[in-house]
Design goal:
Helix content: 10-25%
Radius of gyration: 20 Å
Strand content: over 45%
Largest sheet: 6 strands, mixed
Shape: elongated
Strand order of the largest sheet: 1-2-3-6-4-5
Distance between the termini: 68 Å
Number of helices: 1
Structural class: mainly beta
Number of strands: 6
Length: about 160
């Protein structure tokens, strides 16, 4: 307590204040640390191009399935450590989206946006007609937002 300790005390107080919010985060956040950061845009047009899993550590991950031609049930997992995860679905296609967000927001078509901690939501759309096929999406983010949008394909590509 003697000498030049005032600077270290101030540094300690700043570090404690900076780390308090981290202690409030849930333990099960998946950060996808090895998956990189930035912007990932995937426009899938055929079932052969569709991957079963899309991951990104931090940033914006957009999965555009509006032009996907498919003839079987497809299962896709998309996860993001921190940032915004957006999935664009075509109109009239049967789909199920299960979203999990540790801290943030979930926005599904036709439903109220929810935000908070440890969020889970499943959205189901029967689509038009009974094809027997389903787009089955499992979406998750540690810190951020999951958004599912029903839309028609863009005219210019």
């Amino acid at each position: 307590w003697v000498g030049r300790s005032r600077g270290l005390i101030a540094l300690g107080v700043v570090l404690v204040l900076a780390l308090i919010p981290l202690g409030a985060l849930p333990d099960d956040i998946r950060w996808n640390a090895g998956s990189g950061a930035g912007e990932g845009l995937y426009r899938v047009t055929s079932q052969e191009d569709l991957k079963s899993e899309y991951t990104l550590g931090a940033g914006e991950l957009t999965l555009d399935l509006r032009s996907l031609s498919w003839s079987d049930t497809v299962e896709v997992n998309a996860s993001l450590g921190a940032g915004e995860l957006t999935v664009l679905l075509p109109e009239g296609v049967p789909a199920r989206a299960s979203a999990e967000v540790a801290v943030g927001t979930i926005d599904m078509p036709g439903e109220q946006t929810i935000d908070g901690v440890d969020l889970n939501r499943t959205w189901l759309s029967n689509g038009e007609g009974d094809t027997g096929y389903l787009m089955d999406l499992t979406l998750s983010t540690g810190l951020g937002q999951v958004t599912v949008i029903r839309d028609t394909p863009e005219v210019s590509r």
